[in-house]
Amino acid sequence: MRAHGWGGHPPADADEARARILAATRRRLSEAGTTSTSEIADVLGVTRQTVYRYFPTTEDLVDAAALDAVGELTTGLVDHVRDHLKRTDGDAGDAVVEVVAYVYEHLRDDPALNRMIAPGRLSTTVAGLTAPSSIALGRSLLAGFGIDWESRGLDDDAQRELVELLLRTLQSFVLDPGEPARSGEELRGYLQRWVAPALRA
């Protein structure tokens, strides 16, 4: 690395180095919609070889930034749904509406996440939405919303089916957002009309 790299504050370890590289990558994606290894090296004041040590190609770097954004999204989703339910005195129907709308909005609006639904990647991302690992993750997220799903008649199997339904709903909006695409408010209205009532029955 350069003598004055990392803004004069070298990372303590490899984990911190990776985190700082990814943070710089996501900032650059937000600013310009694209980036490169050379650009990130310049931003951090290090050599390209330093970045290559953690991310061998620009493709690896940007893909890692997308996965980092996914991790942030899942954490933010739980906090958002809990806050929304508390603020609005919402119910299970409101929770599932927010799950789909929040994830859809972030997939569309976050440049790092948007990469996952770009042409050439969309089919892989969409197929992965309903993979067993995605359903397992969704099931764990449901448990974090502060809702007693079993008291609402949803046992483990029903909760897995609910997660699958929400993922398939999200999948359909990602594949075909409509013309014109619905705003966040319009999407929530649509989901409140056709999805939420199933949780209120």
Helix-strand string: HHHHHHHHHHH
- CATH class categorisation of the largest domain: Mainly Alpha
% residues in beta strands: under 5%
Count of individual domains:
2
Task: List the total number of helices.
Answer: 11
Distance between the termini: 61 Å
CA-based gyration radius: 20 Å
Q: Overall pLDDT, averaged?
A: 88
Sheet having the most strands: none
Shape category = elongated
Structural class of the helix and strand makeup? Answer: mainly alpha
Number of strands: 0
CATH architecture of the largest domain: Orthogonal Bundle
In oligomeric terms, what are we looking at?
Answer: single chain
Description:
The chain is mainly α and 201 residues long. The protein folds into 2 domains: 6-56, Arc Repressor Mutant, subunit A (Orthogonal Bundle), CATH 1.10.10; 65-200, Tetracycline Repressor, domain 2, CATH 1.10.357. Helix content is 71%, strand content 0%. It starts with 13 loop residues before the first helix and ends with a helix. The relative contact order is 0.10. The mean pLDDT is 88.
Gist?
The chain is mainly alpha-helical and 201 residues long.
Highlighted features:
mainly alpha, 0% strand, 201 residues, Tetracycline Repressor, domain 2, Arc Repressor Mutant, subunit A
